Amino acid sequence: MLAMPIDLDTLSLEERRARLRKREAQLQSRKEYEQELSDDLHVERYRQFWTRTKK
């Protein structure tokens, strides 16, 4: 089923605030996830793939 976007102008003030709080909570969890990612690439392990071989 296709859900159409809701017109925020037709919502009451309480409903708008509730939607805003829900959206902020989703964005917060996404930011926390992005901060957890770390770079653990070991360059020496893959050095062979970008050095040229002699023909």
Determine the N-to-C terminus distance.
60 Å
Largest sheet: none
Average of pLDDT: 80
Number of strands: 0
The portion of residues forming beta strands comes to under 5%
> Poorly predicted ranges (pLDDT <50, ≥5 residues)?
none
Question: SSE string, helix = H, strand = E?
Answer: HH
- Report the radius of gyration as a whole number of Å: 24 Å
| Global morphology | elongated
Query: What is the percent of helical residues?
Result: 40-55%
By DSSP (H or I, 4+ residues per run), the number of helices equals: 2
Q: Given the helix and strand composition, which structural class is it?
A: mainly alpha
Quick description:
The chain is mostly helical. It has 2 helices and no strands. The termini are far apart.
What descriptors fit this protein?
single chain; 55 residues
Structural summary, described in words:
With 55 residues, this protein is mainly alpha-helical. The protein is elongated and about 70 Å long. The protein has helices at 13-36, 43-46.
Layout of secondary structure:
Layout: H1 13-36, H2 43-46
